Amino acid sequence: MKVYRLVRKKYALPLSGKGAALKGGRWNSPGTELIYTAANRSLAMAEVAVHLSLATIPDDYVMMELDIPNGVSARKLKRKELPSNWNVFPYPNSTQKIGDAFVLQNKCCILIVPFAVTRGDYNILINPRHKDFKHIKVTDMYKFPFDRRIFRQL
Q1: Residue 148, SS3 per DSSP
Q2: pLDDT, greater one: 118 or 101
Q3: DSSP H or E run through 76
Q4: Nearest-CA neighbor of 7 among 54, 55, 56, 47?
Q5: Cα gap 105→121, rounded to integer Å
Q6: Angle 11-12-13 (CA atoms, 0-180°, nearest 5)?
Q7: What percent of the chain has pLDDT over 90?
């Protein structure tokens, strides 16, 4: 499976989950290391773009392509397994607890979760502490300038 990650260049490597652990996110509490990726480039961009405005677009983003080989342990969450408010912002503690438990239990390397911005799409979360993590490789990384048309001026 190929997955994508859009990140500022200085935080791209090594893959660690330490950035997510600093402040936490929808699927992890502060202190829990988790790597957020998306099923395609557009989703990776949308995940970042929802937090930016035209005035705050950094010019140092890179798109990372990662290969997750067949056989890497994975679990896909169904919407019915999630709390009713799983996709609100700010994100609820209940979704953070799901991701924290995923990392703590360490049964799978990959957790596939619904994408909060568009229905029917998925984020792929990677547990960097799982034994299968060593099989995941960065296959490409390239500069990713945002198209300024995405952001409207107010």
Answers
A1: helix
A2: 101
A3: strand 74-76
A4: 47
A5: 25
A6: 100
A7: 72
DSSP 17: S
Residue 24: the pLDDT is: 94
Pairing of strands 74-76, 35-38: unpaired
The pLDDT, as a whole number, for residue 94 is 96
User: In sequence order, what are the residues at sequence separation of 6 or more whose Cβ sits closer than 8 angstroms to the Cβ of residue 1?
Assistant: 67, 68, 70, 124
* Distance from C-alpha of 106 to C-alpha of 128, rounded to nearest angstrom: 10
pLDDT-based confidence at residue 52 (cuts at 50, 70, 90)? low
Instruction: List the structure tokens of 6.
Output: 């859009």
pLDDT number for residue 45: 86
Measured in whole angstroms, how far is the alpha carbon of residue 123 from the centre of its chain?
6
Would you put residue 121 in left (φ > 0), alpha (ψ -120 to 50) or beta?
beta
User: How many degrees, rounded to 5, is the angle at CA 95 between CA 91 and CA 97?
Assistant: 125
Q: How far apart, in whole angstroms, are the C-alpha atoms of residue 114 and residue 79?
A: 7
What is the distance between the alpha carbons of residues 30 and 96, in angstroms, rounded to a whole number? 9
Would you call 1 exposed, middle or buried from its count of C-beta atoms within 10 A (0-12, 13-18, 19+)? middle
